[in-house]
Amino acid sequence: MSARVAPARSGVRAAAAAALLALSLVAGCGGSSVQPTPAASTAGSAPDPTDPAAHMRTVLLDPGHNGGNDPKAMAKKVPDGRGKTKECNTTGTSTDDGFPEHKFTWDVALRVRQLLIDNGVNVVLTRENDKGVGPCVDERGKKAAEVNADIAVSIHADGAPPNGKGFHVIYPKPPLNTAQGAPSLALATALRDSLRGAGLPVSSYAGVNGLSGRSDLAGLNFSKRPVAMVECANMRNAEEAVTVSNGVGRARYAQAIVVGILAWLGRNPPASAKPSAAADPSRSANSRAEGSESDGERSGSSASSSPSATPSARARTAN
Ligand SMILES: [Zn+2]
Q1: 33: buried, middle or exposed (CB in 10 Å: 19+, 13-18, 0-12)?
Q2: Residues 12, 259: contact at Cβ < 8 Å?
Q3: What pLDDT score does 53 carry?
Q4: How many Å lie between the centroid of ligand 1 and the Cα of residue 299?
Q5: Is residue 144 part of a domain?
Q6: Among 20, 99, 124, 169, which residue's CB has the most CB atoms within a 10 Å radius?
Q7: What is the CA(105)–ligand 1 centre distance, in A?
Q8: What is the distance in A from the centroid of ligand 1 to the CA of 166?
Q9: CA 52 – ligand 1 centroid, Å
């Protein structure tokens, strides 16, 4: 298609501005003529509600998988958050032409980060580059709480049967703490709505209306903040392979993700204003697995959400 980045981007900026406007209204920053006090952040004192920094939102972005290929390190078993174990991580799937998922997720994450920063949102990534190995999926799941992020968004692309296409957004189900419940479903829904609003196709093979609840993903199970995982596309689908492999296509995913993130932030108060959900996922008695996959945080073709996925098709997602 002949779509250009610039017009789409300005559209996102407009939507983002609207979302941030809503954010400032929800946060209650308006209505006061009191000037922020430069010395308001003295250690030990209560946060000054007029200090703009007090409302700085933080988003943890997880570019799924890793670029480095160390089979021994990645095969290390780590807790899945529901009483079982799974592999530390993988390099993910790829298009049939060999464009790797880790490269896709890294590029989209950098684009999302820049757009969020442009909109005044602080961003932390789970990995520093696209060359190293790890961190393992359980560590990624714990990261949002460690950096005091408001939410965590994991970015992936799927390796499903080639006749399936479209995005789906995964949320933890059943939830293991308060944050994994309604707030995570709301985040997943906001992302679903923004991706669909950007004209991206809803998955034809996974989830229901672009949403999929999963219990087998450690990156979700360990989160103590609202969390969602975006499966942007099916890299094995010929049409979507073209989209994920070029910068214009990746920018489109990134812009849509940012709109969804800003929409969620605009509807929810800062994390610092909320009681933390402190339940320990590892203590959950629930260990029900969905589907037969047990590796990495690879994605959409779970038995529960993709009845058309065959075992052989799932095997193609192996790395
Ligand atoms: Zn993945």
Answers
A1: exposed
A2: yes
A3: 56
A4: 5
A5: yes
A6: 169
A7: 8
A8: 14
A9: 36
- Distance (angstroms) between ligand 1 centre and the Cα of 155 equals 8
Provide the residue type at 179 as one letter. Answer: A
What is residue 111's predicted lDDT score, i.e. its pLDDT? Answer: 98
The protein residues having their C-beta less than 5 angstroms from ligand 1 (an ion) are 64, 92, 156, 298-299
Q: What is the mean pLDDT of each run of 10 residues along the chain (319 residues)?
A: 38 45 35 30 43 76 94 94 95 95 98 97 97 95 97 98 98 98 98 98 98 98 98 98 98 98 94 49 34 39 35 30
Residue 187: give the domain boundaries: 53-315
The answer to whether residue 2 is domain-embedded is no
What's the CA-to-centroid distance between 93 and ligand 1, angstroms? 7
The tokens describing 145, both together, are 């709480």
pLDDT value at residue 165: 98
What is the Å distance from ligand 1's center to 34 Cα?
A: 47
Can you say how many angstroms the Cα of residue 204 is from the centroid of all Cα atoms in its chain? Answer: 20
Pick the catalytic residue: 87, 101, 231, 297? 231
Q: Look up the CATH number of the domain holding residue 285.
A: 3.40.630.40
Residue 120 DSSP SS3: coil
**How many domains, the chain?**
1
Q: Following DSSP, what letter does each residue of 138-181 receive, concatenated? A: HHHHHHHHHTT-SEEEEEEEE---TT---BEEEEESS-SSGGGT
- Is residue 33 assigned to a domain? no
Q: Which helix H or strand E contains 219, and what residues bound it?
A: helix 218-221
Dig out the tokens for 230 from the structure.
Answer: 């975006």
**Cα separation values, 217 from 139, 170, 235, 256, 294, Å:** 12, 9, 20, 23, 9
290 is catalytic: no
Distances (CA, A) of 186 to 35, 161, 228, 243, 299: 34, 28, 9, 27, 20
